[in-house]
Structure formats: C-alpha cells, structure tokens
Amino acid sequence: MVQVLVIAIVAVLAVCGLFAVAGVRVVRQYERGVVLRLGRLRNEIRGPGLTMIVPGVDRLRKVNLQIVTMPVPAQDGITRDNVTVRVDAVIYFKVIDAASAVIQVEDYRFAVSQMAQTSLRSIIGKSDLDDLLSNREKLNEGLELMIDSPAVGWGVQIDRVEIKDVSLPETMKRSMARQAEADRERRARVINADAELQASKKLAEAAGQMSAQPAALQLRLLQTVVAVAAEKNSTLVLPFPVELLRFLERAQQPQAGDGQQPRPAPGVPEAGTQPTAPDTAGTQPVAGSAPAAGANGRQPVAARGPGAGSPSAPAGTARDPGAGSQAARPHPSPPPRSAARPRPAPPADAGARPRPDRLTRH
Known about the structure:
- There is one protein chain.
- The protein is α+β, with helices and mostly antiparallel strands.
- It is 38% helix and 19% strand.
- Strand 2 and strand 3 form a beta hairpin.
- Helix 3 crosses helix 5.
- The longest helix has 43 residues.
- It is rod-shaped and about 165 Å long.
C-alpha cells in the first residue's frame, strides 16, 4: 500500500514538473512578451528573461523591438509636371507598443509596407521632377509624416524614410543632358566675358603706364616675339610700328643747312648746264659747204646758238681746243619755268654750220 502511494506521489510530481517545464518561456533582451489568457490580453507585458505561463491557458506573443529595415518596392508614377518616373525607397521603423502591435493590426510589417508604397505614389504625384532629383530631404520628411500618422495607432514608430533611386526614361535623360550642357555653356560664356572685362581694365591701366614710356611698348613687343618664337610650328609675323617707319622716312630726307642738295631725277638737266647731243656725224661740217640734202630734196638748216661760228671766221679753222665739237659745247642754263624767255630766231645765214641736235626742215 505504501509502495503504491509512493508511486502515485512520484507520478504527480512528474506531471507537475512536466507542466511547469511546459509553461517556461524565455524572452530575449530586444523582445517583449504579450500574454493572452483564454483570448484576453493580460495587462502585464513580460520583460526579457525567464517567464512562466499556464500551459494550455496562456499564449505568449513575442514582439521584436529592434529597428526594422524594409525596402519599399519601386513605384511607377507621373509627377506634377507630367513626367513618368520609377521611384523606390527604404523605410526604417520599430515597435514602441508591443500590445498595440499585436492587438491593433494583424501584421504590422505588412501594414507598414503597404502604407509606405501608397504614400510613395502620393508623393510622386504631388512633386515635380526637379524636387525628386534635388530636393529629396523635403520629400523624405513628407513621406515619413504620411506613413507615421496611421502607424502610431499600431504601436509602430517610423524612424526614417529614404528615397533610394529615381529612374527616368531615356528621352528625358537626353533632354536633361542637353539642358545641363546648355547651362554649363552659358556659365562658361559669362565667366569668359567677366574675364575679358577684367582683362580689358588691366590692359587699359597697362597702356596708360606704357604711354608714359615708349620704350616699354618695344620691350613688350620683344617679349611677345620671344614667346611666339618658342613654338616651332608657328609662323612669326613681326609688326613694325608706324612711328618707326616715319622715323626712317625722315632720316632719308636731307637736313636743312647740311650743304647737300637733292639729286635730280633721271633725264632732267642739272642747274647751270645744258644737255649735250651725241655727235652722230663724227666730224663738223666746214662753213660754206652745203649740207647733204634730205630725203625730200630739202636741205636742213641748223639754228645757231650763242657761240656758233661767224661769217668772219675763216673756213676750215678749228675752234678753241677746250670746246670740242659744236654738239659738246655747254649751253647756258635754261631760265626757270616761272620766267618764260622767248627763244631767239636763228640768223638767215646760208654759210652757218648746221647743228645735228636741232634740225628743222624748210
């Protein structure tokens, strides 16, 4: 009898031990336990550590309090300026009320995911393309506010929302590339014009300084020549200042009072001399002899100038030895053009010697 009683006690203790072991639960540090006893929520939220529940009566739900990173699937939408885009994002949230996360919503993860997709499409439709590309911080704040408003009643707190990527059509990408290129070119032209303005001011100041010293301009010209000559594949064109050409022109003209007279042009006789005619006959005709008749049977008559042979001179006598031929004798200097002097008429002397340089026909 005693043996049967001992066996029964041992069996009861074993059953109690098994029952106690079945009710033991371990809650991790980052979790909280929500107990539902017979379907009713227990007000006590089990903290981390070892906890006991009534097996078969209580049901323990563990809720993770860590921050959850959930990617939001890419959403296609049309912006306010009628541009089709594809935007994807990522959301960070955590549970702050374990009981509400279990009681208020069936699956808070799925609910937050769907809410994030809907809010993302709404943000796309309310924003311009430029805002999606350059003003993402403001859009992130608006998206976070839109998701956090209903999530507060679920015991979920939205920590952060970030838009990851914005996909554009290829045509829009090319258009934006042309726009950016045009804007860069405009800025480059403005910068270049500003640089030209500043350079012109500096050049004006430099010109003012060089005008005081003409040699500075020549030195600057030589520096430019040296800089250009360093390149072997360029042709050097050396400009001459107009002042240098004028200086050379003045240097070629005779100075007043230096005793030099300008050289006459070719073919113009010098002052004080008469032009000489070549002696074509080689010999002088003798006075009294008739000259040869021309082609028309007429005899040429030469006008005697001053110093020609006179009738009183014997025929065949030679002139003064220094005179040479009649054609080589110097004539008196012609009068200036301003004072026109009448030419003397030739004497009507048949025995006068003809001059080969001045022949007239009767």
